[in-house]
Every structure is written in structure tokens, then in C-alpha cells.
Amino acid sequence: MKISVPATSANLGPGFDSVGLAVSKYLTIDVLGVAPDWQVEHDLGADIPSNEDNLLVQVALKVCPNLLPQRIKMTSDIPLARGLGSSSSVIVAGIELANQLGQLGLSDEDKLTLATEIEGHPDNVAPAIFGNLVVASYHQGQVNHLVADFPTAALLAFVPNYQLKTSDSRQVLPQSMSHAQAVAASSIANVAVAALLAGDLEKAGQAMEADQFHESYRQPLVKEFAQIKELAKRHGAYATYLSGAGPTVMVLVPQGREQALKLALDQLALAGETFLLTVDGEGVRVYD
Ligand code: HSE
User: Fold this and answer.
1) For ligand 1, is residue 164 a contact (CB within 6 Å)?
2) Is 121's C-beta closer than 6 angstroms to any atom of ligand 1?
3) DSSP designation for 260
4) CA of 112 to the centre of ligand 1 (A)
5) For domain 2-149+281-287, which CATH number applies: 3.40.640.10, 3.90.1300.10, 3.30.230.10, 3.30.559.30?
6) What is the pTM of this model?
7) What is the predicted pLDDT for the residue at 20?
8) What are the backbone angles phi and psi of residue 131, rounded to the nearest 5°?
9) Within 13 Å of residue 224, how many CA atoms lie on the same side as its CB?
10) Nearest atom, ligand 1, residue 88 CA
């Protein structure tokens, strides 16, 4: 059995902790068979445990504590700690692993609730489960979500060659906002989401770049951001935003302009790599 989970790009500007998009990089789990102990073979670095301490196994055992230990191969082209949902993809894979091995018959809604409880917010785990664009809330233990197609656009991700931990990137955010600030910030978020659902990327892009919840506090942590945004504007981009907690910089650009923008970005020779991504329309999948 094989489980595959897409990468995700959260927030999309003002959809902080509640909006995310599934994109075309993948975590793949191969279940190779029962073993005396949990074994997770991977080449993701020495910091990632290869035994029962691996997040994948921890999540699977949390969901179904009596699973038999397995030998598992884990491969991923989702960059770690770069704002592309690498840990959320592992959480979703762990839930699916428990679902399959334990024959739990979980619905997608069950998976979303479990994943959100583990992750703390639904913006990465929801698109990792459903694919596409997902708008979700998590309030008083209840997850509410809506899956929608993403408007036609090209996606470019600049992935810096340094990591930024979500916890560090959350630390620069204010502890509180006034009521008036919250009303203004959520009105911008409302327009961003409405425009995405209406397929109006010009309007969505303006609202995404007007975010009041996190972008202005975090952009200084990503030194390449301003330069990329300026270049992207010159290439007609709809929006440039921090993917999740960063440091990946995501650009939404009209289809047909992405190759020229990628070339121009590559010519800046920034310390990192630029990828052209597409929207993943499926989310987590299982192969026999
Ligand atoms: N919404 C989260 C954040 C995504 O921006 O901190 C990363 O977990």
C-alpha cells in the first residue's frame, strides 16, 4: 500500500490559519509490511526519527493505538520547514495510515477534525486531505470547511535555502488587535476569499497583498521578499505572498507569463530555488 499527500500553501495573505491550497509536491509513504518494531526508512536528514518517534508513527498510533509495527519507506519532495506544509502532510499521512491499517472507515470530515486537533489549525491539513482550495474555520473544537476550485493561474514558489520554524514566525505576530483593526483585517480577508471563489484574481490579488494579520510582520524575516514582489509586479503578477509561515514566497501570475518570470527570478541568483507548481485537485490518496 502507498499513501500520497500533497504539499500545501496556507494563508494566501489574509486567510490566516483558515485558507490553504494543495500544490504539486508530494510526501509518499510505502507500507512494506509488518516488522518487529516501527521502522521509517527515509533520506530526509538525521533530525527526522527513523523509529516509533517519527511524527508519522506518532500520529498513526494516536489515532489507532493497537496497530502492529510496520516497515515504512517515506519519500518527499516537499521542502522541510519552508512554509509548504511538510509536517501537515505527515500528519495527514499518519491519519490515513491508521485509517487503512486499522480499517477505521474514517470519513474525510473525521480526518479533518483529527488533523486539525493535532496541527492546531486547518489551513494546511484541509487542502492536504481534500486537494484544491479549502476555506476552513476551527472554533470551539468544531471544524467547518468548504472546498473550491482555484481560479486558473500559474504558481511560482521561491523556496529559500534556509528554514524558518512556524513557532519562530508566529512569535513576531502581535498578541492582540483592536476591534477596529480586526474588523478592517477581516473585511480584507472576506474580499480575498469572495474574489477567489468568484474567479476574480485581480481583486483577490489586491486583497491578498493588503493582509493585516501577518504579512507585514513576517516579510522582514524573508529578505528576498520585496525584490521578488517587485519583479513579479513587473511581470503582471496578481499577488505575491508568504506561503504559510514562510520563508517560501509564492507568486500568482497569469498563465503564460510564468516561464518569463521564472527566468527573471533565476537571473537574480537568490539563495534558493524557484519551482513552478500546479494546484493538486485530489488531496490524500491511497494506492494498493
Ligand atoms: N497559518 C499558519 C501560520 C501556517 O501562518 O503560522 C503555518 O502553520
Assistant:
1) no
2) yes
3) H
4) 16
5) 3.30.230.10
6) 0.97
7) 98
8) 75, 175
9) 26
10) 8
The identity of residue 280, as a single letter, is: D
Tell me the CA–centroid distance for residue 17 and ligand 1, in Å. 6
What cell was used for 51? 523509529
The residues near 272 (Cβ < 8 Å, ≥ 6 apart) are 158, 159, 160, 161, 224
Report the amino acid identity of residue 226. A
Nearest CA to ligand 1 atom 4: 244
**What 3-state DSSP class applies to 185?**
helix
Closest residue CA from atom 6 of ligand 1: 245
Q: Which atom of ligand 1 is nearest to the CA of 121?
A: 1
**Which architecture characterizes domain 154-277 according to CATH?**
2-Layer Sandwich (3.30)
pLDDT tens digits, residue range 21-80?
999 999 999 999 999 999 999 999 999 999 999 999 999 999 999 999 999 999 999 999
Kindly give, in sequence order, each residue whose CB lies less than 8 Å from that of residue 157, ignoring residues fewer than 6 positions away: 9, 23, 84, 243, 248, 249, 250, 251, 274, 275, 277
Chain mean position to CA 79 = 11
| Dihedrals phi, psi of 64, to nearest 5 degrees | -145, 90
